[in-house]
Design goal:
heterodimer; A: mainly alpha; ADP-ribosylglycohydrolase fold; 2 domains; two-stranded antiparallel ribbon; globular; B: mainly alpha; 0% strand
Chain lengths: 357, 329
């Protein structure tokens, strides 16, 4: 256990923000901040590269854009969905006031997306769930009738439940369930619950091996999640493997590379837990996560959050700890310019939980 | 009344013809199909051929014929391991769910865990269970149980529910049920609180409320198609669209298949499902003769194990095995 609980809460959030920016898909998520023409031109360059058989990968580029958009260290998509779930747990809406509907921010997002599909950008599984809500389905059906009911974004969101109920894993699990089942089902919800338990235990000071075991134990026996996690934990138990050696073994033995989208929460959670068990420090943990490029979008931010929860604030850049990160509206434009600490009701300067309004 | 052999042949001919008729429209929506072909009324390819739908249905038939009353998840997995997992050639046109299951089986993972993966809800079981309906003729409950055995090798959750709906519907049709009875068999085979169950009800509502083809197509897309997702092979969606087509066509073979084709999305699979059910209800005589030339020996393009099998010969063998084998009881 490193530092005070309040330190670890702030380190978990800062680690999430830091790693969210490191995950390569964030380069593309940030395209949403640029003029639409930029995204179209990038697709043209992709086509050009294919036609001319050139292998210089085109990347989103920023010439003639406002300087602040060029900040590659800024908050990206995962931080925003984490913030959405924090709003849900705190019972506040996008504008900071309590929403009328019981589903709160989720009902607001469903309404926004239904009225204008350019208003909110989200993962397929989240979009399908918002559409289900808009057509009158409620949880758990809203999360169940969904091809990506297992999407790992609910695990990222569950970090908010883990922090909301830090030290009380059962309460964190219940909070994660309530949030995840709006958009997910079965393995998607189970892995979110396990992530919330993991974070609640780690921030509460539980040793890593115990926290991992308690998180894994919440997965239903015989489930996809439980078996993938068990296989990954076995790999992590092989002596002497470095982060990169473990990543290589996990890619061969655990990861299923067949699908066009690498968003399966069972795999992401399994990779997270395996690397967490072996990590000697925060950089070690992040290196392991970064060594799974297919899973980068959620795995890297999750590893950053876990690194903060375990190792505290000592490894984090001072500027990230000095002032609250500010959201940019990569996925939810309504959150652009909002301080993360305000949405989470945390006093970033004293890093103490703020008073509930 | 068609006899059992005619129904069995009608079922697999309807499946194979639907597969071949729907294939050019796979992945398209009704307005795109209309813009390109007007209404598809027959084969639009010079050399119409079936795809993985027919070959996977033949694989399930092989398992039924090989194992008889020992047809369980375990024996089906045994067949997959000996006949499918050993294939070194590419599985052309294969679905994600089957490939994920093959990978799991190759890794030594047994059912039901082999069917728990990122595509467990696919329509891959729904497309292959028609032979189960043949051997369980008149017994939709048994068809649903056998479909769950077959399905747990490669699917779980809604993937199994959607397969159970189709197997039960075929079994009801084989037993002489009318369209209402066939629909009821499908509905009873799945939990009311399931995506497949909701889509079966939505299909009936769409057909009851939509006036004319355009309204039917629009409402079917709005209520049944998951348009925010790139792939079109969701079991609940395919079963919903197949039943919308079947109900809109009053259960008639030609119109059911063509309605499914023109509704698009996973058109080869939805038309194969609609064709298998309608064919079982009305027999081989009701399958348009001009479509039968495409009901041919399987080429084994996706599954080499099925190369050389003729759907009509397999239908006869399934029919012969059905009354005596007491499969899966």
């Amino acid at each position: 256990m490193t530092g005070t609980t309040a330190d670890r809460v702030r380190a978990t959030i800062a680690g999430l923000v830091l790693a969210d920016a490191l995950a390569w898909p964030s380069l593309w998520h940030r395209l949403a901040l640029l003029p639409p023409r930029r995204a179209e031109r990038l697709q043209e360059i992709e086509g050009f590269a294919a036609r001319t058989r050139t292998t210089t990968r085109p990347l989103p580029y920023l010439h003639a854009s406002p300087a602040h958009l060029g900040d590659g260290t800024g908050c990206s998509d995962d931080t925003e969905w984490f913030a959405v779930s924090a709003l849900f747990h705190n019972g506040i809406g996008l504008d900071g006031t309590p929403p009328a509907e019981p589903l709160g921010v989720w009902a607001e997002l469903a309404r926004l997306r239904s009225a204008d599909d350019s208003s909110v950008r989200a993962r397929t599984g989240t979009v399908v769930a918002l559409e289900n809500l808009a057509r009158g389905l409620t949880p758990p059906q809203s999360g169940h009738d969904n091809p990506h009911y297992f999407d790992d974004i609910a695990c990222v969101r569950a970090v908010a439940a883990g922090l909301h109920r830090a030290g009380d894993a059962d309460a964190a699990a219940r909070a994660a369930d309530a949030d995840a089942q709006v958009t997910h089902a079965e393995d998607g919800v189970w892995c979110a619950r396990a992530t919330a338990v993991l974070i609640a235990e780690l921030v509460g000071g539980t040793a890593v091996a115990d926290a991992v075991a308690r998180a894994a134990a919440t997965l239903p026996e015989g489930s996809w999640s439980a078996s993938v996690v068990a296989a990954a934990v076995r790999s992590a138990g092989d002596d002497g493997s470095s982060a990169l050696a473990l990543a290589r073994a996990l890619e061969r033995e655990v990861v299923d590379p067949l699908y066009s989208f690498a968003v399966a929460a069972p795999e992401t959670l399994a990779l997270l837990l395996a690397h967490l068990l072996r990590a000697g420090g925060p950089e070690d943990l992040l290196l392991g996560a970064l060594a799974h490029p297919r899973h980068a979008d959620a795995l890297v931010p999750l590893a950053g959050a876990a690194a903060g929860a375990v190792f505290g604030i000592g490894w984090l850049p001072p500027d990230l700890l000095a002032t609250s990160p500010v959201l940019r509206g990569v996925c939810v434009p309504h959150l652009a310019g909002r301080e993360l600490s305000a949405l989470l009701r945390i006093d970033w300067a004293t890093h103490l939980p703020g008073r509930t309004e | 009344m068609p006899d059992m052999r005619s129904r069995a042949r009608g079922c697999l001919a309807g499946l194979a013809a639907g597969d071949a008729l729907g294939r050019p429209a796979e992945g398209m929506e009704p307005d795109a199909i209309a813009a390109r072909w007007g209404r598809i009324e027959g084969y639009v390819d010079d050399t119409p051929t079936g795809s993985d739908d027919t070959e996977y249905a033949l694989l399930t038939a092989l398992a039924l014929l090989r194992y008889g009353d020992r047809f369980t998840a375990g024996t089906v997995a045994e067949l997959w391991r000996s006949e499918v997992c050993t294939q070194t050639a590419p599985f052309r046109g294969a679905g994600f769910s089957e490939m994920a299951a093959i990978r799991n089986l190759r890794r030594g993972i047994d059912p039901p865990r082999s069917g728990r993966h990122f595509h467990a809800w696919s329509d891959g079981l729904a497309m292959r269970v028609a032979p189960i309906g043949i051997v369980a003729a008149g017994d939709p409950d048994r068809a649903a149980r056998l479909a769950a055995e077959d399905g747990s090798v490669s699917h779980s959750g809604e993937g199994i529910h959607s397969g159970q709906a189709v197997a039960a519907a075929v079994a009801a049709g084989m037993g002489g049920a009318d369209l209402a009875g066939v629909y009821e068999a499908a509905r009873r085979a799945v939990p009311a609180d399931s995506w497949t169950g909701r889509n079966l009800r939505a299909a009936r509502e769409v057909v009851a409320t939509a006036h004319g083809w355009d309204a039917l197509a629009e409402q079917a897309m709005d209520r049944l198609a998951v348009r925010s997702y790139y792939w079109v092979d969701l079991g609940p969606e395919a079963v919903g669209l197949a039943f919308a087509a079947l109900l809109a066509a009053d259960g008639e073979v030609r119109d059911a298949i063509l309605s499914a084709v023109n509704l698009g999305r996973d058109a080869d699979t939805t038309a194969a499902i609609a064709g298998a059910i309608a064919g079982a209800m009305h027999g081989i005589e009701a399958v348009p003769a001009e479509w039968l030339p495409a009901v041919v020996v399987a080429p084994g393009v996706c599954l080499q194990a099925t190369a050389g099998l003729h759907p009509m010969e397999i239908a006869d063998q399934l029919c012969a095995s059905a009354p005596t084998a007491a499969v899966g009881r």
